[in-house]
Structures
1.
Amino acid sequence: MRNPYDACHIAVPARDLDEAMEFYVFGLGAKLARRYDDRITLDFFGDQLVCHLCEDVPDEAIAYPRHFGVSFAQAEDFDRLVRLVEHRKLRVLSGPAIRFEGTAEQHRTLFLADPSNNVIEFKNYDDPRMQY
C-alpha cells in the first residue's frame, strides 16, 4: 500500500514549458523539482506531475472524460485554493460550485484549465468518507 513517501505520477502534454511553469509554480504554488529541455517535473500537492513538451495538446479544455486534480480532505484547504485562484486570476472553467447537492456525495468543486488545455479539478466532500 501507499506510504507517505510514495507519489502518484501524472503526465500531461504542454505546448510551452515556460507557460506550464508560470501556471503550476507561480499560479498554483506547485514546487519545481526538475527542468529539462523537454519536460518539467513538479511536486503537485504531494504527487508528481510531469509536463512534457508536446505539439499535440488538446484544442480546447473539456473536463470529461479526462482531467486530474486534488480532493481536499479539509474544507479550509479547498477554501484557501479558491482564494488563491481568484487572487491570481487563474483560468476557471467552472465553479466553485456544489455537485450532487442533498446527497451523500455532495461536494464543492472547481475546474481550472492550464495553458495547454489540460483540465484540473479540485474538490472537497462534505462527508470525507465519500472521497473514494
Note: The radius of gyration is 15 Å.
2.
Amino acid sequence: MPTIVFANSKGGVGKSTSALVLAQVFAAQGANVTLLDADPNQPLASWADRDPEHVPANLRVVPSVTEETILDHIDTAAARDPFVIVDLEGTANVAVSYAIGRADLVLIPMRGSQLDADQGARVIKVINRQAQAYRRYIPYAVLFTCTTVLRGRDFKHIANTLRGAEIPVLRAEMVERAAFRAIMQIGGTIYDLEQSDVSNPEAAIENAEAVAAAVVEHLRVQQEQNA
C-alpha cells in the first residue's frame, strides 16, 4: 500500500497542513489512513488532541515518531492500511532518509519562491542519494502550496525552471484557504467546517479533493511505468 512522504527542509511551506488535508480526504472517501507525525513540533498530534471527537475513526495519528521507530511504524502501517502518510521534520536527518527510502511517493511542498525552490532542490538530492542506496527509483513530485490567483514573476520563473529540468509537478495545487488554517487551529476536518467557521469551506474541500485525485493519479502512472 502506498507510503506518501512529505518532505521539505524549509518551514512555512504548508507541509504538515498538506499532509493532514490529504489524509482527511482519503479518510472521508472510506480508506483507512495512518498519519505518522515525525515532526518534533508535533503539529499533527496537536491537531488530533484539539478535537478528538472529530478525528475520523479510520484516520490513525501516530505521534512522536523518531529515527529509531520510523521504519517499524511505516512497515506496520503499510501492512495494515491502504494509505500511510508521513510528515517529516524540516531538517535533513536520519529519519528523513529512512522515510524517503520507504516512500512510494515523496511530495515536496513548495511556495512559488526561489528560497523554497532552493530548499526543494536539497530534498531532491536526498531522494536521489536514497534511490542510489536502495537501488530503486523513488518517485517524487513538487506540490505547490499556498497559491493564489495572482502569479508573481518568481512563481512563473520557478514553474518554468522545474519544467525545463523535467522535475515532476503535481497537476493540482494547494490553494491558500482559510479553511486549511482553521483545522490546524480548532481541530476537526475540512468536512466539519461550516460557514460560521470560515468563508466558503466547500471551495477548500473541492481543492483538497483535486489534490488527492492528482496524488492518486501520479501514483497510478508511476506504478504502470514500473510494471
Note: The chain has a mean pLDDT of 92.
3.
Amino acid sequence: MTDERTVMIAERVHAIWCRELQNDDVAYDDDFFALAGHSLIMAKIQRAFVLEIGVEVPVDQLYRNPTVASISAYIESLQTVAT
C-alpha cells in the first residue's frame, strides 16, 4: 500500500511540474532549475501542492528537493508522519 501511495504522489507531483513548467518531457530526476524553473513557477507549484495534494511544502524544501523524485519523497515523508 505504501508503494502504491508513493507512486500516486510522484505521478501527481510530476503532472503539476509538467503543467507549470509547460513541458511534458520532465523526467523524475530532472532538476527544476535546469528546466528553466524560477520563483514564480515555484510559487505556482507550491500552491498546487496545497490544492491538489493537500500538503504545504515550505519554499526551502522546494530548493533542497529540486526534482520530482526528491520532492515526492519529501511529501511522502510528511504524509507518513501524519498518519
Note: The domain at 2-82 is CATH 1.10.1200.10 (Non-ribosomal Peptide Synthetase Peptidyl Carrier Protein; Chain A).
